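INFO  loader      accepted 1 record
INFO  loader      residues=415
INFO  predictor   begin
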Amino acid sequence: MNQLRQAQQPDEPEGRVYAPHSIEELREVIAAAVSEETPLAVEGTGSKSGLGRPVQAGATLSTRSLSGVTLYEPDELVLSAKSGTPIAEIEAMVDEAGQRLEFEPIDYGPLHGRERGLGTLGGVIACNLAGPRRLKQGAARDHILGVQAVSGRAEAFKSGGRVVKNVTGYDLSKGLAGSYGTLAVMSDITIKVLPKAEAETTLILRGLSDEEASAAMAQATGSPAEVSGAAHLPALVAQRVFDGALGGEPATAIRLDGFGPSVEARVTHLAKALEKRGKIEHLHGNESKALWRDIKDVTPFADGTDRPVWRISVAPTAGHDLVMGLRRHAAIDAFYDWQGGLVWMRMEGGEPEAELVRAGVKQIGGGHATLVRASEQVRAATEVFQPQPKALAGLSRRLKEQFDPVGVLNPGRMG
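INFO  predictor   done
INFO  writer      dumping tokens
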């Protein structure tokens, strides 16, 4: 490993940091780690190092030198880039061409006390990060066309292709999404892009309770309006988005986007259908985009602290019941995305209350609770990810043994 290029991180003066420039160098680093049984912490810029449990590693493998867009064909709706390419760079490029990433990737930087725009394509895909538009367009894994990667066996492999219709090896590409760098390290990723919306409008219903908002969002998403975002912000949360412009009244946000005349017609139809539920306001264009960026990036809880924050996925109609039940036992702040199916929850008392949270999830019929922010000490002592059923845990273990038998990639991160 010492024969490869090394770069010392400013905050890790004594640590070994390997930053390969090619898939061949990447394979050599992992091969040497396997030979020496040296565990590696895999990262791009480190903007997501606060996700998962702390990694116990002898060196860091950084993808920051695996950077750059290698193929962009707007007419074919395809983009390929090195895994360490900043996601902000990719979004700016496709935006200039009138396109966008439909899975609306989350930027966890602000939640963990970092600046915006530090995340990489590889990090977004490895953590399977999708924002509010997941409601309509699916998860990040659903937009992968192909990958090149090196497994924990130091074996380079390819999966998928570079065209939208190519599904060869698709399941393997999807399998790496959400694996948090514990199975393989991606060097190149191909994703599909789509034309960005010509117009965007968000309807804001004011003053609804959590339960009323759940019913309103269900009505909106079940209508022909083709809703691309549905979120509810209780009063205290509404004050902390959109530069405070929503004031201190609960706000239920319903987003519609697409072809201009179509959006206008759908907005008119949906507003009429919802008018009996309460006062309705409208946000258009950049104002709407600013609001949804704050929702996407969990801005209400980006407070510069390490108070525990949970990301909980449940049935859309059950989110408000979960929060109401937990509030009987703990002080929490919460808001809802994905029509109420995604609950962002901050524990105000400073303790994660993992047993309480997971008991609450079980009581409402099941779901997944992931601790996405807490101090390193708390994450080390807490089961960060939702415990898997026995059969699924066995499958995950066998998958890890196949891809990384020595356990050199991000050991301990997923528990």
